[in-house]
Amino acid sequence: MSAPQWLRAFDLHRPPFSKELGDDELWVPSSRERVVDAIVEACQERGHVLLTGEPGVGKTCVLRAVRRRLPDAGFRLTYCHNATLGRRDFYRQLCLALGLSPKATAAAVFCGITQHVRELSTERVHPAFLLDEAHLLQQQVLDHLHILANYDWDSAALLSLVLVGLPELDQRLRLSRNRSLWSRIHTRVHLGDANPEDTAEYLHQRLVGAGRSKGNDIFDSDALALLHEATDGRLRNIDRAATDALKAAARRKLKRIDRAIIQRILREDDLD
Ligand SMILES: Nc1ncnc2c1ncn2[C@@H]1O[C@H](COP(=O)(O)OP(=O)(O)OP(=O)(O)O)[C@@H](O)[C@H]1O
Ligand SMILES: [Mg+2]
Question: What domains can be seen in the chain, in order of their start residue?
Answer without folding.
Answer: 5-15+196-268 (1.10.8), 32-191 (3.40.50.300)
